[in-house]
Amino acid sequence: MEKVEKSLDNKIIKSLQSLRFIAVLFVFYTHITSDHIIYATCGVSFFVILSGFLYGYKTVENKKTLKETISLVKSRILKFYPLYLITLILCIPLETRIPSVRTVIQNLLLLQCYSTTHYFIFNGVSWFLSMMMTLSILTYPLKKAIMKVKNSSILIGIFCVLVVVNFIYCYYLNKMQVNLQYWLYVCPIVRILEYTCGMITGYLMKRKSYNISKMIATILEIISIGIIIVILVIPNIPQYIHRNFIWVIPMCLLISVTSIERGVLSKILHSKWLVHLGNISFEFFMTHQIILRYVEKYQILAGMNFVLKFVVELIACILLAQIVSYCLKSVKIDIELKDKATVVRG
Questions:
Q1: pLDDT at residue 76, as a whole number
Q2: Up-side HSE of residue 88: CA atoms within 13 Å toward CB?
């Protein structure tokens, strides 16, 4: 759930940042209703594919060594870990049973995505950070492999093969009657496939210049959004399909065509309010379940109709995300000023 990198041009930053908030809103909707899991699966797949797309987009010009890549991963972990630890502590009173020492250690080390049973303990969304940490570690070998393929047609072929492999993986796991919530949603194995598809898409978008008209871009945006809406409204889609596989192609299309910045949707996504909400979407993602769970535990909004409750809790989550974002930025600025002062005194 990283913010869109500033190495991309400002237009891409704006459009994709706005989409980030819409995606996190889908996750929020699932959590507030405790139902409609398909919206959460849509949002999570968007974030995984977007992360892969951004890494792939930067791969063309990124000459970082393995050591530099490891250092980058460490720095990113250090950026989000303090907030993660605070949210974990705040969620302790919400647990109805005392977790095992093993579960606590797994959560402290961000290894909960490797537990097949206790991946939603404490701050339930933190499994996503655990899973993304694994993907970040795998980014370097994936990048090296993609860069070795010079032919775009071969890369497109690999993309198609990955989609087919993803479907086969999901289909046969369903036949095995295993815990699909873990193996198709939380487990890093299946996420590697859609992450790689995102990387290939980003790499191709950066390497080739797609000079399409405003009308064509708008049509492609409508098609991608239309496919996503149709998937969301179709009743009773099998879990093994909507947990992962079905989102890869429409999300890759949506992200790539939006990044071109020529369609009507891209212009709408330039709204300063949407962009701002996208900028605090990580803080929103990390803190929203705390509010939802405390409200539920103490029945703070008991008796309120769903629409009003949704609006009140959404506003509360946005305000908390804004406060957290401001505090994190203040701490970062303070540390940078102290570092500069130390250099000057030195």
A1: 76
A2: 22
